[in-house]
Amino acid sequence: MSKVTGHEDNLNAIRALIKKHKKNDRIFSYIGLFIIGSLAIALLILFLDLVIDGYPKMNLEFFSNFPSRKPEGAGILSAWVGSALVLIVTFFVAVPMGVASGIYLEEYAKKGWFADLIEINVANLAGVPSIIYGLLALGLFVYEFGLGQSILTAGLTLSLLMLPIVIVSTREAIRAIPVHIREAAYAVGATKWQVTLHHVLQYAMGGVLTGIIIGMARAIGETAPVITIGALTFIAFLPPSPVTDVAPFFNFAWLEAGFTVLPIQMFNWISRPEHAFHINAAATGAVIIILTLLMNGIAIKLRYSIRKKIKW
After folding, report:
1. 146 and 28 fall within a common domain
2. Measured between alpha carbons, how far is 111 from 108 in angstroms, rounded to an integer?
3. Looking at residue 206, which CATH number applies to its domain?
4. Which domain of life is it from (predicted)?
5. I want to staple 265 with a disulfide (CB 3.0 to 4.6 A). Which of 48, 79, 183, 294 is the partner?
């Protein structure tokens, strides 16, 4: 009888412990949901405030006019064109280098103290304040290499900022691929490069693209690095067109042109005392947030679509 009673007591103690743990899990879930909801509401309020303030300027002329000393006719033409050209340079520099580095570190690099050192440094670089990249670019690209305060310098600077994000996301995406996919490819005679290119990278593409777009979304809103390297706060002209009607149909003179970007244009307007300029700044801030949300939405959509097509 005592054994049965002792067994029941143990079961009751286990049930009580499980019940307590479930209760703690629910409490933690509610706290996490409250924090996420609070942040989402705060972002929504900020976004709606910018949209309400800047709505009067949300028209075609705002996107097709140059900045002006008169707020009524000022626009963001040079700012959004400059942002687009800087992001083009950033993309074509950071993405190939970042993805290739992630593939090498995860698939080819020998495990040891050197690989661990690189991994620690890459992880640390992802958390370095952006102003540090601006100071590095000022000394390296502007003064040492003589690239000047140009679109090329800005693109290279933001590439340094974006590289750790792309490398880490590429490694994590590759690391998530089951080992049996590699083993199956090796079993039919595939080489290391064929396994990596045609199997591992194909399955990891969703995570890789997500990291790339998130990195680009961060780059579009950066202000400190481009101010440090000498981006203009007022510019009433456009860089030379990258495409021409004369062979070879490409013009690279725009890489050496002066520029401004959307966050700097917003900063310039918000620093002025006139309320009309503040309306322009609110409209610019709304545009930046919309672009960021669109890029993150595209990343989620691409990841979902790619994963839906993949059959493990």
Report:
1. no
2. 9
3. 1.10.3720.10
4. Bacteria
5. 79
Sequence-distant (6+) residues with CB within 8 A of 196 are 103, 107
Residue 194 tokens read as: 């064929």
Alpha carbon distances (Å) from 224 to 118, 158, 277: 26, 11, 21
Task: Give residue 22's domain range.
Answer: 1-57
Number of domain units in the chain: 2
265-309 residue pLDDT tens: 888 888 888 888 889 989 998 898 888 888 888 878 877 777 776
Which tens digit of pLDDT belongs to each residue from 211-230?
Answer: 888 888 888 888 888 888 87
**CA distances from residue 127 to 28, 121, 252 in whole angstroms, order as listed:** 27, 10, 33
Within the chain, residue ranges assigned H as helices are 2-54, 60-64, 77-103, 113-125, 130-137, 151-175, 179-187, 192-195, 201-220, 224-228, 262-270, 275-309
Please tell me whether residues 48 and 177 are part of one structural domain. Answer: no
Among 42, 57, 72, the domain-final residue is 57
User: Are residues 123 and 13 located together in one domain of the fold?
Assistant: no
Extract the tokens encoding 170: 């590429």
